[in-house]
Amino acid sequence: MSDEIGFPTGDLMKGKRGLIMGVANKNSIAWRIAEQLHAQGAELAFTYVNESMERRVRPLAESVGAEIIMPCDVTSDDSMDSVFNAVAEKWSEMDFLVHSIAFTDKVALEGSFVENTTRENFKMTMDISTFSFVDAANRAAKLMPNGGSMITLTYLGSERTIPNYNVMGVAKAALEASMRYIARDLGPKGIRVNAISAGPIKTLAAAGISSGRHMFSFNRKASPMRDDTDPKGVAGAALYLLSGLGASCTGETHHVDGGFHIVGMPDESAVID
Ligand code: 0WD
């Protein structure tokens, strides 16, 4: 059975509470995941990065009945403390975490990786896009005495070179490695930790990548599914990983990209205009 927006409805997340970090607007991957989790009965809390984002995020969060809707800049310990203290106060415990956050200077997302990567931006990119998951996972795990599940969002630019993805690819490689170490540490506590490697999806973050149009059209032409990545597929994978359906699955980077990642050499039609 599906609801009117096409997310399968049911009770898979009934009685489960979780924090969604990384909604910027209705196109955000985190929002698609939130819609799917809500359709399966989850209770959700949201963070937004700053006041200008609140305008878009608050109405979305309220539309799914969220009671915790808070600002959170992941580079600030105080900000992270406030959010996790509020969750602890309101819920005492939580069941899942969605980390869907990444950021780098726009100038680093074009041209030469070796020439355009500064020390300052390298550190900032790793802090926001990688360390924030380690930090959030550590804080969330303390609120999961009965086990739980966590996911983060990554991209193929961690495994292969992708034009202009540059320092973000390095941050995603470190994010995936961090995910595996977190999974190892938290497994004995009954907490599963996984990553979803999504194909290109039109969001604010994707708009920052130079030659984005080429990225979308090449993915469409070269992937086995010959189509754009459907955000509903990403949301469905998140539901699987965050619910009991994903029992025993941990430390995994799960690709939802129309199969693009398995292609060693694309068909001629993908490269000849
Ligand atoms: O094609 C895509 N869109 C893909 C995205 C393919 C594969 C993976 N991903 C990843 C991204 O790298 C990111 O990790 O998915 C995650 C979510 O990205 P998104 O949904 O594509 O992008 P967007 O809607 O822009 O959400 C990312 C958000 C930020 O948005 P803006 O546009 O303001 O940079 O990350 C948040 C913010 O909401 N964010 C922060 N949150 C807390 N503290 C911070 C920060 N310092 N910086 C950014």
Give the key terms.
seven-stranded parallel sheet; 7 strands; 273 residues; 10 helices; Rossmann fold; binds ligand 0WD; globular; alpha/beta
Brief summary:
With 273 residues, the protein is α/β, with parallel strands linked by helices. It is built from ten helices and seven strands.
Structure overview:
The chain has about 270 residues and is α/β, with parallel strands linked by helices. It has helices at about 30-40, 50-65, 75-90, 115, 120-140, 165-185, 205, 210-220, 230-240, 270; strands at about 15-20, 45-50, 70, 95-100, 150-155, 190-200, 255. A seven-stranded parallel β-sheet has the order 3-2-1-4-5-6-7, sandwiched between helices. The mean pLDDT is about 95. Bound molecules: ligand 0WD.
Text of the CATH class? Alpha Beta
- The structural domain count equals 1
Overall geometry comes to globular
Tell me the CATH architecture.
3-Layer(aba) Sandwich
Q: Which structural class best describes the helix and strand composition?
A: alpha/beta
Any chance you could write out the topology, listing elements then pairs?
Blueprint: E1 17-21, H1 29-39, E2 43-48, H2 51-63, E3 69-71, H3 77-91, E4 96-99, H4 113-116, H5 119-141, E5 148-154, H6 166-186, E6 191-198, H7 204-207, H8 212-222, H9 231-242, E7 253-256, H10 268-271
Parallel strand pairs: 1-2, 1-4, 2-3, 4-5, 5-6, 6-7
Helix pairs in contact: 1-9, 5-6
The protein binds ligand 0WD.
The site of ligand 0WD has 26 residues, from α1, β5 and α7.
